[in-house]
Write a structure and sequence with these properties.
The chain is α/β, with parallel strands linked by helices and 329 residues long. It has helices at residues 20-28, 37-41, 49-58, 67-83, 102-120, 138-153, 175-184, 198-208, 223-232, 240-245, 257-262, 274-277, 281-292, 296-308; strands spanning 7-13, 86-93, 125-133, 159-163, 187-192, 212-215, 235-238, 267-269. The chain starts with 6 loop residues before the first strand and ends in a 21-residue tail after the last helix. The protein binds zinc ion. Residues 11, 13, 163, 191, 214, 272 line the site of zinc ion.
């Protein structure tokens, strides 16, 4: 029943969509793949953070994949979103997909964007977010700061997301970039408080002033921080199965999404890395319903909160074909 609800997904990594059946399908259809499906098979099941890191390592041939190599993956993913009645999705992609120089980068990204428009088929709106790894070299960061502003001005991306393991290193060095992006209008998402304590979220708020937080689980251990999030209405992207698979949450019944619902907080549900965690938007909704007791009113609120928290695009190239219209769950 939940599968026919319209859905919005704000937190999904394109690389995390890859799984062995998808690779086999691409090969069967005559497409080229960068990794043997049987090699990726060996990285399952993912039961903890260590096995997830191993999965990411195995996927390394795709870390530097070109847009051409990623096209069949994007096509399969968008088709899957449409089948699940996802009407709006922001997908995180890596700048390593594209040339480094600005002019060829813009050219390649415009081709990528046109391809995504075709795949939307008027049934889903796809937007892209550039990832910034926490480990990024400061020199690369300086160059990327203005590059991402250009991509945003061209209507090619809607925001940036700070991703990667929270290793205790301060994100203060990103502060001026975040300020620049914010001033230019880009949306800011920061993964924080997934496998680390509330201090990671405080730091994200202080130096990044994010519109949205990814995971933010440890905020629920800190009443003062929780109050701050409630009052500032920062949106939280929860990823139930991801948190279970990496061990960030031991049991689904303990997931803070339940508490967030009780407190009337601004949050949504996403898959994070559906290929790795063997989940989908539909299965996430089922899990929330069966394990956390979410009902139709909760899903309606989640839909509205997610839509209200989406990042805005600077330019709109094809308003006529947008899927996002009068959808109501
Ligand atoms: Zn993520």
């Amino acid at each position: 029943m939940r599968s026919i609800l319209p859905k919005v997904e704000l937190h999904c990594h394109l690389l995390g969509v890859v799984n062995p059946p998808l690779l086999r399908e691409i090969r069967q259809c005559g497409g080229s793949i960068l990794l043997e499906p049987s090699t990726l098979d060996s990285a399952y099941p993912i039961r903890d953070l260590g096995s997830f890191k191993r999965w990411v390592e195995v996927l390394s041939p795709y870390q530097s994949a070109t847009p051409d190599a990623m096209r069949p993956i994007l096509a399969a993913h968008i088709s899957d979103l449409i089948a699940q009645h996802v009407v709006y999705s922001e997908i995180m992609i890596s700048p390593t997909m594209f040339p480094r120089e600005l002019r060829p980068l813009l050219q390649a990204f415009h081709c990528w964007r046109e391809w995504a428009y075709e795949l939307e088929r008027g049934q889903v709106q796809i937007e892209f977010i550039m990832v910034v790894p926490r480990t990024l070299d400061p020199d690369v960061l300086r160059r990327d700061t203005e590059t991402f502003v250009e991509l945003y001005r061209e209507g090619l991306i809607v925001g940036v997301a700070l991703v990667g393991p929270e290793n205790g290193e301060s994100i203060q060095r990103f502060a001026s970039s975040f300020a620049r992006w914010r001033e230019a209008g880009l949306g800011i998402e920061i993964h924080a408080g997934e496998h680390s304590g509330p201090e990671s979220i405080r730091e994200a708020l202080r130096y990044g002033m994010p519109d949205r937080l990814g995971h933010s689980l440890s905020a629920f251990q800190d009443p003062v921080l929780l109050d701050e999030l409630r009052h500032t209405n920062v949106h939280i992207e929860f990823c139930l199965t991801s948190n279970l698979r990496t061990g960030a949450v031991k049991q689904i019944g303990e997931h803070p999404a339940r508490r967030a619902r009780e407190l009337g907080m601004n949050f949504s549900l996403s898959t994070d890395n559906p290929g790795a965690f063997e989940c989908s938007m539909t299965s996430e909704f089922h899990l929330a319903m069966e394990a956390l007791g979410f009902g139709p009113d909760d899903f309606k609120t989640i839909f509205q909160n997610a839509l209200a928290s989406r990042f805005e695009r600077k330019l709109r190239h094809d308003p006529s074909s947008r899927a996002l219209g009068n959808e109501e769950p």
